[in-house]
Amino acid sequence: MMKKVIFTLFAGLMVSAQVLAVAVKDVCGQFNGDLNIGGTPYPNRTVYLLPGTAENALTFVLPDFIYNAGKLGNIVLPDIPMDETGKLTLNDATLYLDSISERATITVVNGLKDGDVEYNSIVSAEEAQVLLSIAASSLPEPILVLFQGKAAKDKNFTLVNGGFEGAWTNDEPQGWHSFNSATGVMVDFIKNNYQFTRSTVVRPGSKGAQSALLSSTMALGVKANGNCTNGQINAGSSTADDPKGNYNFSDPANEGFNTPFNGRPDSIVFWAKYQPADRNPANEVNKARLNVIITTNARYQDPEEEDKYGDVKIGTACVNYAANAQMDWQRIAVPFEYLPANKDKQPAYILTTFSTNMVPGGGSSYSEGSVKKVNVLDSVYLDDVEVVYNKSLTSFAIDGNAVTFDKHIAKVQSNYCDDCAKFKAVGNGLSAQTFIGFDATHRCIYIYVIAEDYAQTRAYNLYRVDFADSDTGDLDPIDPQEAIETIQSRTAGFEKVMINGQLLIRHGNDWYNVAGMKLK
Questions:
Q1: How many CB atoms neighbour CB 360 within 10 A?
Q2: Residue 494: which H helix or E strand, with range?
Q3: Which of 152, 260, 286, 371 pairs as cysteine with 30 (C-beta 3.0–4.6 A)?
C-alpha cells in the first residue's frame, strides 16, 4: 500500500539535482506551489525557507498544514542540514508540529526509492522540493507529504528608487515623474519649469549620492506647487485646485506611469528638508504634503473627483508636515490606515504623491513692508523613501506569563516544553506571520516573525527561548547526543528508539524508519 501511495504522490513531480554549488543564503526565500499528501493535491500553498541557526542549515516553514480537512497548525523545522548541491539531509532530531490540536514527529525524507527512481528533498534559488514523513497518534501509519514550488518573484512589495538615484531621463529619475512627463491641455505651459530637479544634498547617513528637490513656481500668474509622483500628472486646468483637471493618477493601462504593488505595509518612511518661502513657523499653511494610496487593479486619481473611488482604495497614508526649527532634514514616518470594507481585496498598485504644499496652489509667500513677495520659492528635498513592514515580537507568553527577551533571547526557569497551546506569540506587523519552532535536542524554541515582503527582501526576526535543565537548573543547552538518547517522549502515541545508532519509530506493534517506511 505504501508503494502505491508513493507512486501516486510522485508521478511527474521531481526536481533534478543541482549541478552548481548553492549556499544557504542563495536558496532562502518564499516558494509558492502545491502540496501532495498521500496522493491528494492541495494547490496554491506557500513555504518559507529561512537561514538556520546552525551552519549550512535551513529552517523550513509550512503555514496552515491541513490533513483530512483538519487544521493541524504550522510545520516549522529548524536547522535542516543542507549540502552544497541543495539536498536536505536526514534529520534525526525530534521535531514537532506547531498545532493547538496535535503534535507529531516530522522527518525530512531523503533518498526514497520507488523502483529505479530515487527521490530527494532538494532546493535551489529557483525551486524547492521537500518531502516529509509525519507520524502522529491519529494516523494509522506515517504519511508522506510533498511540497514542490517555485520561488515567488512575481510580486512587488517595495517602492521603486526611493533614493532618487541613478540617471535621470527627461529630468526624472527611474520610477518617478513630474511635469515634464505630464499629460493634459496645460502641459506646454508647465514643462521645463525646473520644479523637480536632481540634487546632491542627501540626508544624514544616506548611502546614496542623490536626492530630489521639489520647488514651487508661478505659471500663468498662478502659484504651482512642486509635485512628483510614481504615477502621472494630469495638468488640465488653470485653476490649481480643480480636481477635474489637475490631479495625479495611476491607471493599470498607463504602462510606465504606474507602480505595481502587492503589500500591506505598516508605514511609509521618508526624509525631507522642507524650506518654505515664508519662514514664520506660526503660519499653518506652511506645510508640505505626502499622500499615498494603495489600490486595487483599477484607475485612481489624487485628489479624487467626487466620491467614486471607495471600492478602489485599500490603504492610505497621508501627512502634512512643517519645517523643523533648523529648516533641516527630518525623518518622517506615516502609518497606513486600511479600509475595513476593502480588507479582503488584493493590492495591485500604489500611488505616491509629494507636494511642496498641502493645498493645491497654496505655496507660501511673504511680505516685506508694503511689498508682497510672491515669487520666492517653497522647496523640499526628498530622500530615501521606503515602505516598512513591521516584524518584531510584541509579546510572548507561556501559560499566560509574559516572557522578557534580551537581544532576542529569553531564559525561562522551567522544563523544556513542546505543548503548543501553552505559547502565545504576538507580532507587531499588520501582515507579518509568527511561527514557533521546537528544538528538543537543544531544549529551546524559536519564534520566527516573517515580514510580508520576505519574498523580496528576506526580512524576518528570530527569537529564542532557552529552558532550564529539569535536573540542574542549568540554562545552557544540554549535549545533543545526550538529548537523542534521553528524549524519548511519546506524547503522540509513538516511541522513538535508538537501535545500533539508528533512529526507529514504534507505533503499537509496528515499526518504521525515519523515512516513514514500514519495516517488516
A1: 20
A2: none
A3: 152
First-residue to last-residue Cα distance in the chain: 13
Cis peptide before 140 (omega within 30 of 0): no
pLDDT of 478: 33
Identify the pLDDT of residue 427.
92
Q: Which residue has the cell 502641459?
A: 187
Triad 70, 75, 80: Cα angle to 5°: 155
Please give the Cα distance from 505 to 107 (Å, whole number). Answer: 11
From CA 496, how far away is CA 510, in angstroms rounded? Answer: 12
All cell numbers assigned to 34: 502545491
- 519: Cα separation from own chain's centroid: 43
Residue 410, Cβ neighbours under 10 Å: how many?
20
Round to whole Å and give the CA distance between 199 and 165: 10
CA dist., res. 394 & res. 260, Å (int): 30
What are the angstrom distances between the C-alpha of 79 and each of 435, 440, 510? 15, 12, 29
Q: What is the DSSP string of 174-234?
A: TT-B-GGG-BSTTHHHHTT--SEEEE----TT-SSS-EEEEE-EEETTEEE--EEESSEEE
Q: What angle do CA 265, 47, 408 make, to 5 degrees?
A: 60
Is the Cα dihedral 369, 375, 381, 387 positive or negative?
positive
Cell of 302: 489624487
Q: What is the pLDDT of residues 123-156, one digit of tens each?
A: 999 999 999 888 777 677 888 899 999 999 989 9
CA–CA separation, 293 vs 336, rounded Å?
A: 9
By DSSP bridging, strand 460-467 and strand 409-412 are: parallel
Nearest in space to 198 (alpha carbons), one of 28, 18, 359, 381? 381
The answer to whether the CB of 204 falls within 8 A of the CB of 326 is no
Q: Which triple of cell numbers denotes residue 335?
A: 502609518
Q: 487-515, pLDDT tens digit by residue?
A: 233 233 455 565 555 556 665 566 665 54
